[in-house]
From TrEMBL:
GO BP field: acetyl-CoA biosynthetic process; fatty acid biosynthetic process
Gene Ontology MF terms: ATP binding; ATP citrate synthase activity; metal ion binding
Localization (cell): Cytoplasm
SUPFAM superfamilies listed in its UniProt record: Citrate synthase, NAD(P)-binding Rossmann-fold domains
Record carries keyword Methyltransferase: no
Provenance organism: Vanilla planifolia
Protein name stated in the entry: ATP citrate synthase
Amino acid sequence: MTNGQIFSRNTQALFYNYKQLPIQRMLDFDFLCGRESPSVAGIINPGSEGFQKLFFGQEEIAIPIHSSIEAACSAHPTADVFINFASFRSAAASSMAALKQPTIKVVIGPATVGGIQAGAFKIGDTAGTIDNIINCKLYRPGSVGFVSKSGGMSNELYNTIARVTDGIYEGIAIGGDVFPGSTLSDHVVRFNNIPQVKMIVVLGELGGRDEYSLVEALKECRVHKPVVAWVSGTCARLFKSEVQFGHAGAKSGGEIESAQAKNQALREAGAVVPTSYEAFETAIKETFEKLVEEGNISTVPAVNPPTIPEDLRIAIKSGKVRAPTHIISTISDDRGEEPCYAGVPMSTIIERGFSVGDVISLLWFKRSLPRYCTQFIEICIMLCADHGPCVSGAHNTIVTARAGKDLVSSLVSGLLTIGPRFGGAIDDAARYFKDAYDRGLNPYEFVEGMKRKGIRVPGIGHRIKSRDNRVKRVQLLQQYAYNNFPSVKYMEYAVQVENYTLSKRTTWF
């Protein structure tokens, strides 16, 4: 830290707890400012290692992911800033671990992650979008040092300061905790030692006594640059009882902690304190203009920031571009509030009591089939739900599992044996029988025609069962079809083919 500065255009940080959007915003700010290297050196995501692809301008870069703070600090010894986005549960442990690292000089967060040095370094989501950063002139340094308790109000003041001055040099939000990691006076004194900072703006709030340390610094002449300050919360006196505002430390207590008392103390210590928040902007403007008239501030050279390419996802959402689809699904639709199967919302499926067969009809046939069809599907599932070792597929799966292979490998070993002569014959049988019937071939013409072509008639023939010992599954399905289907012409044709083949051999059915 030279002359009070904690950041520069070369500052690099380690980012704890992977959050893609804040990190990408930091990298976009880097590119906007014309930094040669990204400000995020590495990401710490406990339990994970690898790389994360992010954009640095138009190019994708790979940022290392480390599983521990120690490993990240060892891999990136020049990264001296630790940005902590830890959850409440791990906040204390991660912060203490970072403080023990000799390479880490500044620990930021997780109570507040608000801070920016214009044109040099930005912490996480500070100052919001790129458009807002450009509007607030944060892509190049100005002459104002700003410190606030509130991160949200900081963004408002960046805009206010940009309207009436040449912009900020550095802005910090210390957070609204009762016991913050740094105080308002810490940063004001630090700003006083930075030559590029010509004036200081402070936004405090009621509750606590942090502002009084700034009062003492002003009285002791440790701050000689102009300070424009306002302590918010003057409305607290309108309430009859103690009021807790948004921050833990922002609560109305005794008179000494009131906004009015703090504003008066700052005014008496020499700070420029307006009579209301509405007059805060005017006070900043007048102080800045006085410094310009005295020749203490020179004109900041105009800088044209580069254009940040818009993310495809955002551009598509805003309707600026269109992109072709990569996968087309006509079965289910997960784009809305709830999934839809062939256009039927999932809630409708549940409320109307759809059966498994009804759902399969939507997914496989893309429409709701009649009840006799969906019940037929359910019967097929029940009849084929055996797991015995008497068929090749199940046997292969059992052998593979006994060999110690995993579940997926065992299952696949059985499925891969399904083909025209095992399991899959039923598919070819349906195709050939339907084609023969539609072409008007009688069973003799069909069977003999297949024989001349050297093609086995699919679905005909069994190694165990015979004409006098039929397959029970087939009998049950035939009986259901006769009793429930409006037409069974293809099945009747198959039975005629079966009768012809049985005349040749008793197992050809």
